[in-house]
Design goal:
about 90 residues, mainly alpha, elongated
Amino acid sequence: MRKESLLPLLLLLSLIGTLVGAFFKIRHQPGGDLGLLLGLACSLAYWFIAFYDVMRARYLPIPERLMWVIGLLAVPYVAGWLYYFAWKRGRFAR
């Protein structure tokens, strides 16, 4: 699978899995653990790909790289979508 289609798919699956898993856990229904696990696994895969891309982009100044890393750790879904659209526009090395 190409990276252009893998990044948004992983981020969307992590968001959906986390939300559905949390909803099922709150309602005490079966399947909540699986949803949270799927969301966490997809989030980790997305974070590793994004961290690798940010650290590989040598033309980005160090403070901007640090900003992306902190953003991806602190608010992963918002920073993830911002990262994807910035990457899609060619901001990062491919």
